[in-house]
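Methods — Computational structure assignment.
A single polypeptide chain was analysed. Its primary sequence is given first, followed by the predicted tertiary structure written as structure tokens.
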Amino acid sequence: MSLRGQLFTRSAELPLYRAFRTFRAPVLPPLQITMAVTWRCRYHCPACNCAQNEQTAELTDQEYYRFFHALKFRPFMITLTGGEPMIRKDILKISALAAQVARPVVLCIETAGVLPDRAHRCFKLLTERYRDTHFIAMLSLPGVHGRLDELRGAPPRTGAFETFLKTYRALRGISAPNYSIGVDVLLSRFNAAESGAALDYAFLMYPDLVKLTVAHGSACLGVAAPEVAPPRKDHDALVARYIQKSRHAGGRGAHRALWHAFRAQSRRAARNLHVMAQSAPCSAGFASLFITPDGTVLDCPAAAREMGVLKDHAMDLESLLCADRAQLVRKQAAAADCFCPMQYADMAHALMHSPTFIKMTASSL
């Protein structure tokens, strides 16, 4: 079924998720699952602390097999992130398991663009084999030209930008109706001054999608917000610039629907950081989850409240979500006064926010 058909189908479920968020019962499976498949990465970006966690144990492909086969529901979206997902030699096997067994409506793989050949082979095979899932290759871009080496924490003249462009060209060459290539512009205090240039460059590359992500604190990675968050004025200016440019972006069907979700996320992030509170009920722990490389299930990486460990529940996510620990975390999340850009649950929030959902559905026609 197409993305449009899935949006119509899911519309009947959304009131149940809102009730679940309010009353915490009955327990529903998540709409969105973000899975960090590794903390390893070739770069050491100052806005990310993955290097500190590189020795963390990782689930094997057999454990991912058990995890996906234990799912009794179809997630709307699965995102494979890291670290650098492409650094895993079995990333194709893991993503193929996700597509074949879990059958998400959307499967996104985030990458810094470090391994062009592996990335191309992965998405080429996925789009050919699994037509019922829409795949997104999302390449992160905090800066351009030689500045990218610095922002990646790489030695001078490493060629991070050239490698990024090589990966982009390889992925841009894939033509499939169930595929999008996107560029994720990362904003932090380390690149606030030149973030506008990075955003302009991203749009000039003419990808199917451009996303704006703002760096914030992450208890999961041991990063405090003041260490990485950009000045508010720079964030506000870039959000306004992004929304203006994105309104003139092309695309239709799935692309137009996803543009609405990304714009809504940018506005939500700006509002949250303005008022230093949740501008809308957070779906973390309810409609969205974050899973670390070792199989620890968190409500989100920002607050990093541990709901349980998959291995303690025979890799059965639904069993874990019904356990006492998960119920306690949902209670804490519902009562929390925390705030963040709410980026890891962007699709869940878009689906549960009626105006955004209506725009997504209408634009996909």
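Note: The chain has one domain: 3-358.
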